[in-house]
Amino acid sequence: MAIDQIEEVIKPMEPTILGSQLYYELLPTDLLIGLSVETLHVIPGPLETSGFLDALSKTLSVYPLSAGRFEPSSEPRGKWKIRLTNSGVPLKFLTSNADQIMPDNRVIQNQGVASLVEKVNVTKILRPYNDEPLARFTIIYFVKIGYTAIGFSQYHPLGDGYTVIKFLRHLSQNYQRLPELDPPPSYDPPYSPTSPYLYGYSSPKYPRDTLTTYNLDFPIIDGGIPPLKGNRNEEASHVVIHFNAKMIENVHKAVLRLAEADKGDNVGNMVFSKQDTLIALLVRAFTISDPDNAISDIVTLFMFRGIGATLPTAACNALLCALTDPPSCDPMDEPIESVATRIRLALQRMRDPEFLEAYAAKVRDQMQNISDANIDWDLTPQRGQMFVNSTWRFDWTSPHFGYPSQTQFFHTILQKPRYLKIVQPNPTRLADGSWKTYNGDAEVTFSLLKNRTEIVYADIVV
C-alpha cells in the first residue's frame, strides 16, 4: 500500500550522444509494436533520490531514444521513427508500509511485477502525433523492511533484453559514480537503403515461416493489450524448476555420452552447450507428458548482434527465431541427443552470416508488412511447438546500485503453454543476514496445459 508519492520527469543531459539529430529510424525487426518490457530490481536498502535522478539524466544522454516519442509510419513501406525530443522519462517515488515485496524469490513474477511497475501505455504510444512517454520508472521504498524496488517499463521497439540490461547497468554505474562497464550503443544503420539485405531478400536456405500475428486494431484503453487473434486461449498452469549446476552438468554429460554412441544424422559430431541439453531434456519431458502436443519444432529466440552487418553494440532489437528442422522420426520416439542436435544445428545456421542476412531480410519484409497493417508478432507457441526465450547468460542482478550479490531481479513471461524462459536464479538472504548466490544454476519457467500438470522427466538419469 502506497503511503506517499513524488513524481518527476527526468530529461537527458544535453548534448546527447545523437546531438542535433531529429529522428532515429527503426528497422523493421525493431517493430515489436504491441509489446513492452518490464523489470524490477530490489535492493536491501534505500536509494539516494537526487543521486538517482542525476544518474538517470546522464544515462538518458547515452540512451536518448528512451526520452523521445514514437512516430508510427503513415504510409505503406514508410519509416517508423523515434522523435528525438528529449521530452524525458516519468519517474514516481513512492513509499509503502507493506511488509513484503514478493511472495517468494522466483525471478518470474507476472502478478507481482504488474502490481509494482507502472507500464508504458502501448495503446497511446501507437496514436499518431502522440506525446506518450516510451519509458517509465517506479521507485518504491518499503519502510518496514528497508528495501527499495526499482521498477522499469519500456516500449519494446526501443530495445530487447540486451539493450535493457545495458541501460540499467549504465544507470547503476552512474548512480555509484563508477566507470561504465559496457561500451555505448551504436546507432549507426547497418544497411544502406539500397542494400539487398534490407527487405525481402531470400535464399534457398531460408527456413519455414515462423511469424504468426495478432490484431492491434482494438479500442483505445489505458494500458490495453489486444486479445489474441484466433483460438489460442488454452488454459495453462505455471511451473518453475530450479536446476542446480550439478544437475545441469549431469544432463550435459549424459547427452554427450548418448551422442557419442549415436553416429547417425551427424549426432556424433555435435558439441552441445549446456543450454542445448537442458532444453532437449525439457522437450522430451513435455512430449512424454503430453503426447497430443508432442514437440516437433523448437523455436529459440536468437540475438544476432555481431553477425553480418549488425554491430555487437547495435541499439534497439536484434532478435530472430532460430527454428529447428523437423525430426527424422515420430517426436514420441526421438532420442534426446537428436533433439539437442536439432537445436544446435538451428543455432549454428543462424551464425552463418550469409544465411543470417538472407533470413533477416525476409523477416524484415514480413515485419514491415504486418506493422503497416497494424498487427504484431504473436509469440504464442503453436501446437507441437516449444518457444524458448533464454537470457540465462545475462546477469540481470549486475545493475545492483551498490548492493552486489544482494540485488534481486524480477521479470515477466508470456503465460502460454510451451513458452519457456530460462534465467539465472536470484540470490537468497539467509536467516543470519548473509546472502547465498547460485552460480551456474538455472531457473526455468513455463506453462503446461492444466490437464498435464504432472511433467514426466525425460529418459536419462540426472
Automatic annotation (TrEMBL):
It comes from the Eukaryota. The keyword Magnesium does not apply. Coiled coil: none annotated. Gene3D superfamilies: Chloramphenicol acetyltransferase-like domain (3.30.559.10). Keywords: Transferase. InterPro entries: CAT-like_dom_sf, Plant_Fungal_Acyltransferase. PANTHER family: FATTY ALCOHOL:CAFFEOYL-COA ACYLTRANSFERASE (PTHR31642:SF310), TRICHOTHECENE 3-O-ACETYLTRANSFERASE (PTHR31642). This is Transferase.
